[in-house]
Amino acid sequence: MKLPISAQQFLAEYWQQKPLYLPQAIPDFQSPITPDELAGFALDADIESRLIWQDKEVWAQADGPFTAASFQRQDRWTLLVQQMDRWHPSIHQLRLSLSFLPNWRIDDVMVSYAVDGAGVGPHFDRYDVFLLQGLGQREWRLGPTCDDSTPQLGGGGLNLIPEFEPESTFLLNPGDVLYVPPGIAHWGIAHGASMTFSIGLRAPPIAALLARRTDAVLEHLSSTILLEDGATATLESRPGEITASHLSNARDAVTNALDALDDGRWLGEILTEQGDLATDDTAYFSASSYTGSVRLSAEARIAWQECDTDTDLNAFINGECITVSANALPYLMALCSGDAVVHHALNDACPTLSNALSECQALVDDHSE
Ligand code: SIN
Ligand code: CO
Q1: Which of 76, 91, 109, 112 to mutate to test the pocket of ligand 1 (most atoms within 8 A of CB)?
Q2: Position with higher pLDDT, 368 vs 283
Q3: Rounded to the nearest 5 degrees, what angle is found at the Cα of 218, between the Cα atoms of 212 and 219?
Q4: Cα 201 to Cα 221: distance, rounded to the nearest angstrom
Q5: How many domains does the chain have?
Q6: Residues 44 and 19 occupy one common structural domain
Q7: Are 338 and 295 in contact (CB under 8 A)?
Q8: How far is it, in rounded angstroms, from Cα 201 to Cα 107?
Q9: Which CATH number does the domain housing residue 36 bear?
């Protein structure tokens, strides 16, 4: 994706802060699927989809799967299909267009089709999104920053806001992109039949991180180690009081335990964790004697981190952490970039990684999808 400014400037001045219009970010972009093909995916019970329309000024929605008859309607309707990157190789490629962001930050590509004049209503999302216009035109109206205190129209999980005053408007043509940071109110309205590809960058809730880090530490913390308070014990002047120094002593003990026993793996594990893996008929790759090239499957999520030793790395594959030799580094980086690697070279350089990737069904033949 071509940014109108340097990637460094984007990250410093816009990322998670301000919207940015990126005209012709993907020059000559043509939607890899037709509206009919998108509707076909929404008939599948394994694929999450929603229809949204306005019924006498009231926003209404229905969850998929749908039937062909569901789309025979006269009102202004929008079809949203989630995680299309799992199901369509060219849509999966769009994940790779955000090479200035870590691959593990990219969540999914949702595709929407809207008939003339339709949209999903003014709302805000809690994650960053790059809205890539795929077919026809869509007018995006951007409003103020919203949060939990912003009044919302009840239910449905759409975060619709009843009062919306646009502050800026952009008309997107195929290949144009609008970056919208979390919380910014937005409303896309189709001009003619329109398809948009939303590349979403969901981040884990802090609550989930805290729970995971705590669980990871508790695995190594013996329940026989008790709080010590020798250093803070003072003569009690008011019976029954828990003093500020008692509290800070307990806080310090908890923080010290977290710092001492946290091996840092929980972050990679949670970031690469998968929801339900689809049961499709993809030819996952496993034969170690294979001489061709392999790459990551559309569903696999991997990342890596340095270890305390120079000779090892932690590799994360679909939520599992394994320690691999540092020889694996070029292969991990290539796979994270969406590139193919020669399978026997990967196997020779780092059989542990090669075997773990095969066991997790994370590799596919380079020509299979
Ligand atoms: C749409 O494509 O119409 C909705 C996408 C969004 O607002 O995040
Ligand atoms: Co949105």
Answers
A1: 112
A2: 368
A3: 95
A4: 34
A5: 3
A6: yes
A7: yes
A8: 5
A9: 2.60.120.650
